[in-house]
Amino acid sequence: MAELTELGISEARDLLAKGALSSRELTESHISAMAESSALNAMVTETPEIALAMADASDERRAKGGSGALEGIPLAIKDLFCTKGVLTTAGSHILDGFRPPYESTVTANLWQAGAVMLGKTNMDEFAMGSSNETSYYGAVQNPWRRHGDNRALVPGGSSGGSATAVSGRFAMGATATDTGGSIRQPASFTGTVGCKPTYGRCSRWGVVAFASSLDQAGPITRSVRDNAIMLGAMAGYDPKDATSANVALPDFEAALTGDARGLKIGVPKEYVLDGMPGEIEALWQRGIGWLRAAGAEIIDISLPHTKYALPTYYIVAPAEASSNLARYDGVRFGLRMPGDDLTEMYENTRAAGFGPEVRRRVLIGTYVLSAGYYDAYYLKAQKVRRLIAQDFRDVFASVDAILTPSTPSAAFAFGDKADDPIAMYLNDVFTVPANLAGLPGISLPAGLSDDGLPLGLQVLAPAFDEETMFRVAGLLEEAAAFNEAPTQWWRSR
Amino acid sequence: MVEKSLMNNYVEGDTGPWEVVIGLEVHAQVTSQSKLFSGAATAFGAEPNSQVSLVDAGMPGMLPVINEVAVEQAVRSGLGLNAKINTYSVFDRKNYFYADLPQGYQISQYLQPIVGEGVITVDLEDGRSRDIGIERLHLEQDAGKSIHDRHPTKTYVDLNRSGVALMEIVSKPDMRTAEEAGAYVRKVRTILRYLGTCDGNMEEGSMRADVNVSVRRPGEALGTRAEIKNVNSVRFMQQAIAYETGRQIDILEAGGSIDQETRLFDAQSGTTRPMRSKEEAHDYRYFPDPDLLPLEFSDAFIERIRRTLPELPDAKKQRYMDAMGLSVHDAQVLVSEREIAAFFEQVAQGRDPKIAANWVQGEFFAQLSKAERDIADSPVSADQLGGLIDLIADSTISGKIAKDVLVSMFESGQDAAAIVAEKGLKQVSDSGVIEAEIDKVIAVNPDKVAEFQGGKDKVLGWFVGQIMQATKGKANPQMVNQLLRGKLKA
Amino acid sequence: MNFNRPERSHMSVDKATVARIAHLARIGVAEEQLRPLAAELSGILQWIEQLNEVDTDAVAPMASVHDEALRWRKDVVDDGGKQAEIIANAPDGVNGFFAVPKVIE
Fold first, then answer.
1. pLDDT at B308
2. C-alpha B115 chain-centroid distance
3. Closest to A243 (Cβ–Cβ): which among B61, B95, B291?
4. Can you name the residues that pair with B229 across neighbouring β-strands?
5. Which stretches in chain B have pLDDT values below 50?
6. What CATH number did the domain enclosing A126 receive?
7. Domain with CATH 1.10.10.410 in chain B
8. Which of C3, C62, C98 sits opposite A382 (nearest CB)?
9. C101 - beta bridge partners?
10. What is the C-alpha to C-alpha distance for residues B356 and B362, in angstroms, rounded to an integer?
11. Containing structural domain, residue A116
12. CATH code of the domain made up of B431-489
């Protein structure tokens, strides 16, 4: 039954609908693939019993004539989403043993649509990282390796476990979150499709917060169509999240028209980096060529404040995180390390509970908000952030979408950047601006690097216009005809 | 040695006069069913952690959603404090760690509060009034409760109060005496209770005050202030101000300086001491809460609330004085609580307002306090008290009998007329009956008659007493007087 | 586009500052870690300071991602009454309370 794990969501959906396949069969095949993939360390918690119970319930519903958009489809859930009664760690020691008595809105929406939970995916601690090396539960390995090189590569981060589960063919799709690129960068590194929708499209309720004004949930899948289907099931207005947008939820799948006519695609000159590998530039040019060939109009644009997006992000995100992570204090849940008094208990708990990257960002965030520095750092960053958002608003007056590379490089090896925080932060240079501006963006695999690693292209669209984003991504996907997959070297039997 | 000067409110120290400067931060619990950002109940005194939502407990991924009534109540309060209402305000996070602060921050309003500057008039004991400035009013979350005395080595935390909506009302440093501070708190309490935005119950903690006290030489710049917390009654607040004033003057006169610090009031000793747990300098790292968008509403929203405001105590007091002819004192007492004013107005309806005012705050209040009841659960209704006053007005009973009737009314809950009929207390105004009694007394007391006729006017009172005794107090006193004089002169 | 990596290596954050912010953030940091952390944070802050190149004099800070006003909910009690759930994950929960090392006010 190994081939069942090669199915995409839309294909499985059709087979399930025809009765050619049961959710139980589909789920079982993914459960065994997941069990055989432990070498990748993509899962923090596997929930095979829950998966089978959900699959059976799905088959029963289908037998009675009911079926949701993801009826019977087995998915992996990033361990940042609170799942009722199931260990939820955010990749951190500090959430030791935490079993939420509640279910996040996004996962609840997925179960409502009939989906099946395979387990919780590994991730950078509190979603802070671009390589998955900061997880308390150990790094995730990228299923991909360079041609003729057995060195393990990072899957990207922070949603590295989700991207790996999908790329490694043991989940049909996975939830992920993106604060500065945490969906799109690992998708690019693993040859998968990852979309960060417009800020406010998916509810943040029940998702462990990293940086509230930037965090947004989205799906990682193996095709653009699957992505559109899954986002449709995840998204929707939630009155429990004051930043959730009360806007109509379009049929994203229907946006995949394959029609490029009339599309104006912006190509920002600021996304050419000094020292960027030639293959990234070449991939981008190929993408531009495909869209032009399909009939779209290519327009050179300028997003003048792009250069300042990363430093802005590294003020805003740590500032919000320093406050969001204050609740991890050993009082109500998670890890507690003893101390002689309350303050010592806090300091011991948080010293033991947070890893070095989380500590670094909490300290930076505390510093930039502290008395005497607020105006120079935080307020300044919020002003530059407005300029960055305004740049996009200005260009979207004349273009429908923007095409860029997803990342400035292909996946790198473990330890390559772990000692240099800023080099690591530079990974997110192309993805961060969309978070700052709250815009939707998608990364899809568009080719291989010279040494055989997947490379992604990114499509950005105006707020709440995921339809155009998917439409353009669909055109690129078709033209790229990317059908490479990692050899399953990790499978144990 | 600290002495108070009456003329200018200065305090005489050993080295000269000092001026005390007081500012107050009143924390008033918003009257609402549910909390500021969650659907958990706000009721007082429930089982620990039973009125707590996942949001109030700061669980991972939980998000705040604002309660519309809290917004309305804040606007309503702002209007009652004659303050500027800000149609755009921002919620900020105030970051600090404490066991009963589950999020690790309090959601509050820092730079852009919902209500800006206002002013209220406070009434002082000697009948003077003073205007006290309001700096701002903002909405914020209450913290939970730490219980330190249940376990030898542990503090227990109950989050039932966590997330309850509070209005922090900050005064300008406009007060100069403990009396003014007390009058200010009472006035704020009265206004909020009139508005129905806070029940003002200080025992249950729904109103608390932090007191900022500093002293300075008259005319000089403001001194360094100490903030006194844990003051939960007006009396304690005044004690705390008196103690703190003395402490600061003693330090300054000894050549020392005042530390800007938070001090805790100890009700048992009536003193203040530095808070041990908050010694370190605060750096709250305020920033706009990214889980909440700016709070915005229209002028029409404000006007809609304005139209539903009740007549507030100052306006009421003025009306009682101007239209009803009451004294300042009477008017002040009657408007002190909305329920008392409403009771009084019901009694005064169609009656002489001055007589109604006398009865309400005289005999009625005395009986109410004797019965240990509030006006809200008075055994005698406003209409019943009005009925009693009517019996005096139409001479059915005398004022003196009426006082006894009121006692019976409090005991039985019966109407005045029923008690008068049942006990046969109807006043005797039949001149024949009264004259017959007078004749009897005159007949057996010729010596007293002679005394009166010899010019001893005081004897008249003795005669009145005899007649009243003979008629069990029911004789119409005016008629007794009048008829006695006629007969004695003859 | 070119990212200016800071060339200067002066420390904008010293050991004492790291100790102060670590205490504000209630993260215990061992004495020997203060200096390396100070160097690391200084490096990041210097890199961040390139924002000073941007003229923001006439720019209002971004208050929220989308220009929307806050939505309000009805004042209805529809939550609470779940003491067991609230304290279920507590490292130390006693008689319905959370317990922490004794605090002296």
1. 97
2. 23
3. B291
4. B264
5. 1-2, 5-6, 279
6. 3.90.1300.10
7. 431-489
8. C62
9. B154
10. 10
11. 2-262+439-480
12. 1.10.10.410
